[in-house]
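Side project, low priority. Logging it here so it doesn't get lost.
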Amino acid sequence: MVDEGGHNFKRLRDKILARSQAQDWDLAKKEWKLVGIYEADEPDTCLCGHTPIIEVCVLANTLNGSRVEVGNRCVKRFLGLRSDLIFAGLKRIREDSSKSLNADATVFFYEKGVITPWEYKFQSDTMLKRVLSGKQLQTRQNINRKVLDHLSRRGI
C-alpha cells in the first residue's frame, strides 16, 4: 500500500505494530503520543521509507516506552496527530517574529516546558490580536525567540 505521496503505509504500519503492545492497527495507534519535534540538519528517511524528510516527529509508546522518529506527513496521515500545525506555527514566527504561534504550537510548547504558565496565558490572550502595545509586541517576540532558540539547540 503506497499512497500518492510515496509514503508506504504498510511499511509504517508494520514498524509501528512491531513496537506496540496491540497488534490491531486502530488500537496500536492509540498507544503512541507525540513527544518531540525537530527539523533535521540533513535530509532523513521516515519509517515508511519516504525520503527526504526534514520535519521529524518523535513518538513514544505510552505502554512500553518505545520511541520512533517519523516524518511529519506520516504522523498526520496515518496516526492522525496534527504535528503539521506545530510546524506551521514555527514557520509563521520564523518568517515574522511579530506574529503569534498558533494554538496547537502554544499548547505543545507549554506541555513540553518550553514556555512558562505566564507565557502560555499571554500567548493565549494575545494570539488573535493584530495590534499590540510596544511592551506586548516585545514580550511576544521574546517568547517566539525562546521557542525558536530551544528548537534550534536540540529540538523538542
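Brief comment: Residues 1-5 have pLDDT under 50 and may be disordered.
Revisit when time allows.
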